[in-house]
Each structure stands twice: as structure tokens, then as C-alpha cells.
Design a protein that fits this description.
mainly alpha
């Protein structure tokens, strides 16, 4: 894959992060807006399709992860890199910042509780969410302490699936991954209703990784080439237009959001030589993980204050729009700061510690 294609992947991460932030910002200034402000409804910002489509950024993240797992598989297939290194490098990428942000959130919850506000229940299983173990929150929803971390539980699940596929049959990683993921989904359907494992496994988002992996396999084999770009674009837009009115959480997410995300990604991938991404979008891609982890806390701090300020100044009719703009800017700004001041130093430190602990590179059989 060319450098431009890698740039495209990073740019899509940035756009996916913005989409998710946009989705949560719209919810914060509409259905979750402070009731004491008595703001008029915003027909545009509260439109269900607009609110819901931003959540498709999560589906795009899953598709991109599935693609990358297969694309980077060649050194592991050829025995040049070990499975242990793969797992370690993936966890180094996601866990340190996740752990720090989770601990900071716990500190904030403790402070709120001491100040007379509400906190949240911390069961032993909930605390294990710090290590990507799925658990229910106090409302019975599959959600870790850091709410957006539910997607990372699936990310880590797929990392483990990929590692297992390497160990089982490194020459046919995709086929083994399909069996493992598909089998997990089927097992989830058979588990008792109300169990954590059923809620986790019997969710079609785990199949979205396979969409990205399939795109990667077709692209690497030459079955998916530039002449297919506009067909992918057209198909993606048609599927999205048909299913846009269907809420993403209605049980058909693989079809309503996953398939169009994969098709639109394929279009960008195949059009890589024609796209020149602005540096700002690439920077957002670099910082997408930090933006994703911190944005909910930031927006629910900024949006209510901005809406309240505009209301007191005599502009209640635009309070929702102003709150949304302020929250979007704040989420990106804080995410960028987090990327440079926390994520990058933590990742470097964790990588250094791992290399010291590992010693000489293990053999491919490790």
C-alpha cells in the first residue's frame, strides 16, 4: 500500500472521530440538554437521522481496524514477527491512555460524590473494565466506567481473535478469523438473555471487523482495484440512503451502518491517488484516539455552560447551535492537547518498558 493510502486511513480516522463527537454533541444539546434552561427545540439539530448518522463513525472505526489487521498480517504470516509482539504493540497503543482517562474519570466521580452530586456503582466486574473486561453499568447497559470504552472492548476482542488466527493457521488468517468471530456471534445467540457474554458477543458490530478484513483481502489479492471505486461509492450511498431512517441500535447495525461504512471506505481506498487530504484532517487522525476518549466529558462540561451563557445574554433561540459549536471546538482542542501531552509520551514510555522487559525479539513461534 502506498503512503497516500496510509494517509487516507489516518484521515478517515479523523473524520470518524469527528462524526462520533458530532453525534454526542447533538444529543447533549437536544435530548440531553439541561431542562432548567427551557430552550426552544432546534428542528435541525434534533432531526433523528442527523443525530443517528454521526454514530456511524464507530462503524467506520471497526471497519478500519479489520482492514488494518489483515493488511499488516504479512510479516506474521511469513514468520518475521511474533504473535506476542503483535498483542503487546496493540495493547501499548490503546491501554495506557485508556487507563489514565478512566482513573481521572473515577477521581471526578469521587469528587462529585463528596460534593453531594451523583457518582456511579463500582462493582468488582465494573472495575475490571479497566482491562477491557465487558460489564454492565448500573442501568444494565453493557458499558465500562469510561462509557465510550465499550468500543475498545470489541477492539481488544478482535486483537485476540487475530492473534489466535495467527497461531492456528497463519497462512489463512482471514478464514480462521471468520470462523472465530462468526462462531463467537453464534455462541452469543445461545447464551442466556441478560448475561454479559450474550450482550457482548451477540452484537453485530463484531461482524463489522470482518467487513474491513474482507476489503483488505480483496485489495491485497488485486480483486478490488481502482476501476471499482465509483461502484463502491454508489453502492455505499444507496445502502446508506435506504437505511438512514433506521436507528443504528435496532439490531440491524451491520447492514444499516457497517455495510455502507465498508463500501465508502473502499471508495476512499481505491481513490487514494486522487485525494489530497488537508494536513488538519491528518492531524485529527493522529489525535483521533485521544479525541474519542475525552470528548464526552468535555462536551458535557462545555455545552451546558455555553447554552446557559447564551440564554442569559438573551439569545435562547441559538443557544443549542452555539452550545454545539463551542462543544465541538472544545472537544477537538482538548483531544489534541491530550494527544501531545499524554498519549504520545505514555505510548513511548510503555513501548520502552516492553522492549526492556522482552529483551531480544522472540521467534515467530512465540
Amino acid at each position: 500500500m502506498s503512503k497516500q493510502s496510509i494517509t487516507s486511513l489516518q484521515a478517515l480516522r479523523g473524520l470518524a472521530a469527528l462524526a462520533v463527537v458530532f453525534h454526542h454533541v447533538l444529543r447533549a444539546v437536544t435530548i440531553n440538554r439541561p431542562a432548567d434552561l427551557h430552550l426552544p427545540a432546534s428542528p435541525l439539530l434534533s432531526h433523528p437521522i442527523l443525530v443517528d448518522l454521526g454514530a456511524m463513525g464507530v462503524d467506520l472505526f471497526f471497519v478500519l481496524s479489520g482492514f488494518l489487521m489483515i493488511y499488516i498480517s504479512r510479516p506474521y504470516q511469513q514468520g518475521h514477527k511474533s504473535t506476542a509482539d503483535f498483542v503487546a504493540n496493540r495493547l501499548i497503543r490503546v491501554w495506557p491512555l485508556y487507563a489514565v482517562v478512566t482513573v481521572l474519570l473515577l477521581c471526578q466521580a469521587y469528587y462529585n460524590t463528596r460534593a453531594g452530586g451523583s457518582g456511579f456503582d463500582l462493582t468488582p466486574m465494573r472495575l475490571l473494565s479497566l482491562f477491557f473486561v465487558p460489564s454492565f453499568n448500573e442501568a444494565g447497559v453493557l458499558q465500562p466506567i469510561l462509557g465510550v470504552g465499550w468500543t475498545l472492548n470489541y477492539e481488544v476482542f478482535f486483537y485476540l481473535v487475530f492473534a489466535a488466527a495467527i497461531l492456528i493457521e497463519r497462512k489463512h488468517i482471514l478464514a480462521v478469523a471468520v470462523v472465530l468471530v462468526g462462531g463467537s456471534y453464534a455462541i452469543g445467540a445461545l447464551l442466556p438473555h441478560g448475561s454479559v457474554l450474550r450482550a457482548f458477543l451477540f452484537n453485530s458490530v463484531i461482524l463489522e471487523f470482518l467487513l474491513g478484513a474482507t476489503v483488505a483481502s480483496a485489495y491485497m489479492r488485486g480483486a478490488l482495484v481502482a476501476k471499482h471505486a465509483y461502484a463502491c461509492l454508489a453502492a455505499g450511498l444507496v445502502v446508506l440512503a435506504i437505511f438512514a431512517p433506521v436507528p443504528a441500535d435496532e439490531g440491524f447495525r451491520l447492514l444499516t451502518r457497517g455495510v455502507p461504512a465498508a463500501l465508502l471506505f473502499a471508495f476512499v481506498l481505491l481513490s487514494e491517488s486522487k485525494i489530497r487530504w488537508p494536513r488538519a484532517i491528518i492531524l485529527l487522525g493522529d489525535a483521533s484516539y485521544s479525541i474519542y476518549l475525552v470528548h464526552v466529558t468535555v462536551l458535557y462540561t462545555v455545552a451546558p455552560r455555553a447554552m446557559g451563557k447564551l440564554t442569559r445574554l438573551g439569545y435562547p433561540s441559538v443557544a443549542a447551535e452555539g452550545g454545539a459549536i463551542a462543544a465541538m471546538i472544545a472537544c477537538v482542542a482538548v483531544g489534541l492537547l491530550c494527544h501531545f501531552l499524554l498519549e504520545k509520551p505514555l505510548t513511548r514510555c510503555a513501548k520502552h518498558i516492553y522492549l526492556l522487559a522482552r529483551g531480544p525479539a522472540p521467534t515467530a513461534s512465540a
